[in-house]
Amino acid sequence: MEAAGIAVVTGASRGIGRAVAVDLARAGFDVVATMRDPSAGGGLAEEAAGGVGSLTVAPLDVTRPDTIRLPDGLRVLVNNAGTERDYLPVEAAPMDQWREVFETNVFGLIEVTRRAIPLMRAGGGGVICNVTSSSLLAGVPFYAVYRASKAAVQALGESLAAEVAPFGIRVVEIMPGPVQSDMLTASARMPEAHTVPGYEATADAMYQGRMAIPADMITPAATAAAAIRAAILADGPPLRWPCDPMGGQLISAWRADPESMFGGG
């Protein structure tokens, strides 16, 4: 794919989404950087200045269909908007947290995607890029709500890729590891599971493991964004791509021996 035409990025106010919006604009796309609160997009156009594309900020809340307006001529959709909640064991995670996370990470993504497909079909093709998580490649405790939502997006992407390929539409799944973002920073805390009797030791081990990630293994968002752009511009497989070294290691290990990633024999 040539780096030209219209690209829409959801959840572009910060972190990976913001970096991807800037990167795609600099590369040549006319980017619509969307977010719930457009005031959070201050400075985005200036960050993208100096490239060969353009960037505008627009309101879009994936959980509110009335705010979803996609432009004609759409060539790239980056489904980046996402959320997570408390790190709790399945038995203790309230159902409202499941519903809230799925509303954004799954149902909101689906609503945006189903509106994007006819626009891409009319234009002769495009790329739908879904941001999931490399945590899907290992049985991470207390991430069930978040991982289940991202697993739903992964399954969606597999079926969608088969459906839309005849229209010249590629589906790309990005599986980040530790990329510098507000979400990663927020994860550096004792899991809420520590307050649930019986889970204290596992929660403490999770916390110690998270805090042990060396700083040089955390990838800058701009570096991850460049890798995501490369995946979008590629002309073929694979479906799943990393955007950082640790994510790449996990994908490679999973491809070599999927069962071992989940404690299987």
| SS strand fraction | 5-15%
CATH topology: Rossmann fold
Strand runs, count: 7
Biggest β-sheet description: 7 strands, parallel
What number of structural domains do the residues give? Answer: 1
Helix content: 40-55%
Gap from first CA to last CA:
41 Å
Order of the strands making up the biggest sheet: 3-2-1-4-5-6-7
CATH superfamily: NAD(P)-binding Rossmann-like Domain
**CATH-defined architecture:** 3-Layer(aba) Sandwich
H/E element sequence? EHEHEEHEHEHHHEH
Report the C-alpha radius of gyration, rounded: 18 Å
Helical run tally? 8
Global outline: globular
How would you describe the overall organization of this protein?
Helix 1 crosses helix 7 (221-233). This protein has helices spanning 15-27, 44-48, 95-123, 144-164, 182-186, 200-211, 221-233, 245-256, and strands at residues 6-9, 30-35, 54-59, 74-79, 126-131, 169-174, 240-241. The mean pLDDT is 95. It has 265 residues and is an alpha/beta fold. It has one domain (6-182, 219-255): Rossmann fold (3-Layer(aba) Sandwich), CATH 3.40.50.720. The termini are far apart. The protein has a seven-stranded parallel beta sheet with strand order 3-2-1-4-5-6-7, with helices on both faces. Helices cover 42% and strands 14% of the residues. The chain contains eight helices and seven strands.
